[in-house]
Amino acid sequence: MSKKIEISGKDDLWLWFGLSYASFLTLPRVMMHAMPDLWQKQMSILLKEYDEMFPNQPRLGTRVQATKDGKLTKMPEFLKNYRHPHHEKIDEMRG
Question: Which of 18, 33, 57, 62 is the most buried (most CB within 10 A)?
Answer without folding.
Answer: 33
